[in-house]
Write a structure and sequence with these properties.
3 helices, Na+/phosphate symporter, about 120 residues, mainly alpha, about 0% strand, about 70% helix
Length: about 120
C-alpha cells in the first residue's frame, strides 16, 4: 500500500474519517428521499381529502361515479407528485378479462397471490 509518508495510525484515521463522511452522505441522501416521499404521501392525502370533500358536497352523484372521480383525482395527485419529484408518470392498467372488461378485485387479488395479475 502506498502511504505517502503517513504512519499506519494516520492512514487508519483517514480511513475512519472517509467512512464517517460516506455514512453522513448516505444519511443525508436518505433524509432527502424520505422528505420527498413524505411530500408525495401528503399530496396523495390532500387529493383524497379533496375527493372526499367533493363527494360529500355532491351527494347526487352515484357511488360508481364518485369512485371513478376519486380514483381519477388520486391518480392525478400521484402523477403530479411523481413529476415534481423528477420521476416519470406511472399508469397502472387494470387486469382485463377475455371480454376486455376489468377483472373484479377478488380475482385480481387471487391472481396476485398466484404470481400473476396486474
Amino acid at each position: 500500500m502506498i502511504s505517502y509518508g503517513c504512519t499506519p495510525a494516520e492512514v487508519e484515521a483517514l480511513r475512519r474519517e472517509a467512512a464517517r463522511s460516506a455514512a453522513q452522505v448516505a444519511r443525508n441522501r436518505a433524509a432527502r428521499e424520505a422528505a420527498a416521499l413524505r411530500q408525495v404521501v401528503e399530496r396523495v392525502m390532500e387529493g383524497l381529502r379533496e375527493a372526499q370533500r367533493r363527494a360529500e358536497e355532491e351527494p347526487q352523484v352515484s357511488d360508481e361515479e364518485q369512485a371513478a372521480q376519486a380514483a381519477a383525482e388520486l391518480d392525478a395527485a400521484v402523477q403530479q407528485a411523481l413529476m415534481q419529484m423528477g420521476g416519470t408518470p406511472a399508469r397502472v392498467q387494470p387486469a382485463l378479462g377475455p371480454d376486455g372488461q376489468p377483472l373484479p378485485d377478488n380475482v385480481v387479488a387471487a391472481l396476485a397471490q398466484m404470481g400473476g395479475g396486474r
